[in-house]
Amino acid sequence: MQYTRLGNTGLIVSRFAFGCMTFGSGEGAFGSVYKVDQDGANNLVARALDGGVNFFNTADAYANGQSEEMLGRALGKRRQDVVIASKVGNRMGDALIDQGLSRQHILSSVQGSLKRLGSDYIDVYLVHRLDPYTPLEETLEALDYVVRQGMVRYIGFSNWPTWLAAKAVGLQREYKWAQFRAAEMYYSLVGRDLEHEMLPFAQDAGIGIQVWSPLAGGFLSGKYTRENPGGNGGRLTGFDIIPFDREHGYDVVEKLREIGTKHKASPAQVALAWLLSRSITAVLVGASKISQLDDNLGATELELSADELQELDKLTEPTAIYPNWFNAAIYDAAVRDALAKRG
């Protein structure tokens, strides 16, 4: 296992974090996601620990709290040895106030999460989504409060646009509130939007990126093909929220197979190894079976060559957006060349 610091902190985390979204049971679209019972959770957590994982990710809304409860039971006495990230913001009940990022909901939710996890603190507490109805200052002050009370040790955000995260960091510095040190964001070979703004911002602000859905909902595992687009009833047949060009995606999967064959590695391992080469802190890997987890963890032993990384980069390079393309084209070549000679 590889390890790193979480952003600009002294917290050491494994570069693979185990995502517990599969823990619990549910109906409808989530029935294809929530499908691991307590025995299964115990086995998966034990295997992750054996593989060197010390970072576990969940949320209050996953299976309406079941995920947190099952993770807490599965860790048991090992809780003190690991880092737990959980999230707040999504609806947890029928009442209008039982959602969002108000002070009321954050304080109520953190207490609920602590009880379900069987812990007196949460290592990393992330706001799960945007809340357009709550002032940003109210959310940030509430997060600062739970840190000062010792209920939470580090805070972060998930699924926020860069401009809002940057505004939040400015307010946190101005008012000397607890700083964002983590962000949970979508990033994969078929979804590299994060590279436009969020990745450079996070590096500058000392925020560690945790990547959710690194295989694009399982698409990059290789089970979905032009000949078998349903993947024999895979997750994407019931829970398909990530937009990307499927036709181009099939080309990416073919390249993953080609590279994987040279290394005796699966397409998923190649996709995960590419992510580990990027400027991110941790990759969330979720699983409903031990075999899936073992395959994912095997990516830490896969070392792609510079040429292979370049092939994947070129094949999946995102289209530049304004003003990025303008600034890339308009620069002072003389200064660049002069500084390059010194290096």
From TrEMBL:
Any GO CC annotation of this UniProt entry: cytosol
A Pfam family per the record: Aldo_ket_red
Organism field: Dictyobacter alpinus
Name of the protein described by the UniProt record: Oxidoreductase
Superkingdom of this protein's organism: Bacteria
Domain NADP-dependent oxidoreductase: 17-316
Gene3D superfamilies: NADP-dependent oxidoreductase domain
PANTHER family registered for this protein in UniProt: NADH-SPECIFIC METHYLGLYOXAL REDUCTASE-RELATED (PTHR43364), OXIDOREDUCTASE (PTHR43364:SF18)
